[in-house]
Specification:
The protein has about 110 residues and is an all-beta fold. It contains no helices and 11 strands.
Length: about 110
Amino acid sequence: VQLVESGGGLVQPGGSLKLSCAASGFTFSSYDMSWYRQAPGKEREWVARISRPGDKTYYADSVKGRFTISRDNAKNTVYLQMNSLKPEDTAVYYCCTPARGFWGQGTQVTVSS
């Protein structure tokens, strides 16, 4: 089983990034997927979740209206489009399969001028 995140980087406040998480080794379309993040010195926090077919999405209040989670089951990939980024969005972002406890290695997002 592998979850491999990509797309992180350094972006200015107000900018955008799109994270990807490529899954392998399990039946991706059978599971809800989530994104979490962990900022320095803080606990890991849930960011967003998407249902198996992708028709239902859920967001933390801190990102609602700015972030969009989506998935492509044909490509075994889940995405996180992040707009209007703020310095407080700086964190390592992880994708995970909540029901199975699979986690990726994370990708760093830094929002700074």
